[in-house]
C-alpha cells in the first residue's frame, strides 16, 4: 500500500502493519476463508483512538468503494458505497436542496465510518445521531453472505452495526435520508457567556430556538473568568448557496514538528484572540457551511501540531441533573494537572433515541477536551476524568478513545455483551480487544472459579 500511514487521527497509537484493499477483503470474505479476529474496516482515519485499528490483524482500506449509486431528489434518500466521503454526499445533494441531517466536526469521514461510530453533530437535540437517518445497509460477513438489514428487516444486525465500530462485518453500502434545507449557508449568532452558570441558563432555550447549538469554552481562564466561553447557534439561511465548495483549504501542516506546538503560552494567546474575534459581534450573520460545521478541515494535517507523540481526546457525557457539578469538576481536574485543551466543546444531547445497540449520545451534556500526549501525566489525568464521569453516571466515548480501562467501558456501555454476541468472528479492533475481550476473559475466569 505504498508509504501511506494507516493511523488513527490522534497519532498516539501505532500505524497499521498490514493493510489490504477493499476488493481483496470482499473476495476473502466471500470465499469463507477469513480467520478469526483477522480483519477490520478502515475508512478515512478520522477516529482519534484505536477503534479503527487492529494491531494483531489486518485493516481494510475502504476508500476505493466510493460510488454514489442512486439519489432520489424528491425524498432525499441517497444510496452509496461505504467508502464515500461525507463531503462527496454534500456536493452531490446540495444542488437539489438537501444536506445530511447530522454531520460531525469533519466532512472527511466515510459513510461506513459515520454509521459504525453513530456520529453526532451540533443538532442532536433535534435530529439525534447519524444512525437515526440510516434507511438500510448491506453487510458482508465471514459466512460469505451479503446481509441486507433495516429497522424492519434483520433488525438485530441493523441495530448492532450502527454504532458497532465495524465489528459486525464489512459495510458495503447504505441508504440514508438527507434533510431538505433552504440553502447550505448558515445564519450564525455568537453569544458570549461569563461562566458555566450562564451557559446552563442559555442552553435549553438555545436548543428550542435553533437547529444547531454548540459552545466553546476557554478552558485556561481562571479567577472570575473561569468557565467563560462562546455559545454558537445556527440555522440554514432562507436565501443562500446551493453549491458545495471544494472540500478542504489551502493551508496544511506539511511535516511533523519535533515538539508540541500547542503549548500553554500558545493556547492562552489563541483563546484570547479567538474569544475576541468570534465574540466581538453578537449580531446574527450569514456564513458558509464549511466554516460553521468544519472549521478545522481548512487546515490539512492539523493534528501534527501536537507533536510526535500525538494527542488524546476525551469526550464524556453526563446526565443533565449533575452537569452543573460535573462539567466544572472535569475542567478543574485538567487545570490542576497543568494540561491545556486546544479544543474544548460543550453541548447538550437531547432525547432522540438512536436505533443503535450501543450509542454514545444520551440525554445530558457532553464535554470534549483534547490534550497533547505527555505520557504518564496525561494518562493519569485521563483516568481521573474517566472516574469523575462514571461516578456521575456518565459515559466515555469509545471512538474518541485510545486508553480507557475495561471497567470504564463496562460502566459506560453495560450492554456491551449484546454486541459481542453479534460480532462477526473475523472482525476485531484494538479497542475491543483491550476492553470487551478482557471483560469477557475476566467473567469467564470468575465463573470457572465458582
TrEMBL record:
InterPro entries the UniProt entry points to: FAD-bd_PCMH, FAD-bd_PCMH-like_sf, FAD-bd_PCMH_sub2, Oxid_FAD_bind_N
GO BP terms: lactate catabolic process
Keyword tags: FAD, Flavoprotein
SUPFAM superfamilies documented for this protein: FAD-binding/transporter-associated domain-like
Gene Ontology MF term list: D-lactate dehydrogenase (cytochrome) activity; D-lactate dehydrogenase (NAD+) activity; FAD binding
Limits of the FAD-binding PCMH-type domain: 9-181
Family named by the database record: Belongs to the FAD-binding oxidoreductase/transferase type 4 family.
Protein name according to UniProt: FAD/FMN-containing dehydrogenase
Native organism: Mesorhizobium muleiense
